[in-house]
Amino acid sequence: MTGREDAAADPAVVLDLRGLHCPMPVLRARKALETMAPGARIAVEATDPLAAIDLPHFCHENGHVYLGRTDRDGVSTHLIERGA
Length: 84
Description:
A hairpin with a 2-residue loop joins β3 (65-72) and β4 (75-81). The chain has helices at residues 24-34, 51-62, and strands spanning 13-16, 41-46, 65-72, 75-81. It is of the alpha+beta class. Residues 1-8 have low confidence and may be disordered. It has a 4-stranded mixed β-sheet with strand order 1-2-4-3, covered by helices on one side. The chain has a single domain (10-81), classed as TusA-like domain (Translation Initiation Factor IF3, 2-Layer Sandwich), CATH 3.30.110.
């Protein structure tokens, strides 16, 4: 993660996508981000190891900002900020 712990760093939406496999985490994140305002943040919780590759790539290709991930008990939480 970015290390910021203030309220502005809190995601507006948390998607629990545990148990879903590629490409579902990216597709669900894309759908959620489409409804959000630029600058809004989303946290994607995933257990699919490929999400660690797919989500940053998706962000790079679509103008979103991948802010990083944390891993805990087999769940990766990916923080994404919607681009313009």
